Amino acid sequence: MEATVEWVDARERLPRDGLPVAAAVTGRYPPDREGDDPASGEAFWIVLPMYFTRRHFAEDGTEHLDCFVDSDRVVRHPCGGPPCEEPVTHWAALPALPGLDVHIVLGEKAPRLVRDTLAAGGGQRG
Questions:
Q1: 29, burial (CB in 10 Å: exposed 0-12, middle 13-18, buried 19+)
Q2: How sure is the predictor about 125, in pLDDT bands with cuts at 50, 70 and 90?
């Protein structure tokens, strides 16, 4: 099974609110610490699963607009947006679940669909 990925420049267009995405993030590791040379650490560019939201409140109460949030609730902004140590350069919509045309199945249907898809050979269409 193959999926076509369309990467979108985060400076040009943002996903719709609540959309789970693959986000290309850039930064330096380890991140700069106070007093360190701004160029310290190694540059990276990595793809992370995230979701996009128009409005997010961080645990400390800070409001973030038009941002990407990962499973650890780390907030990242798109390039060209508010300053951010690890900005999102590009994003791509996640592919649909194997053999389906949706990204999520909840409740009692989920185990049955997983079982049926695996029994059918992983959802490959052909």
A1: exposed
A2: very low
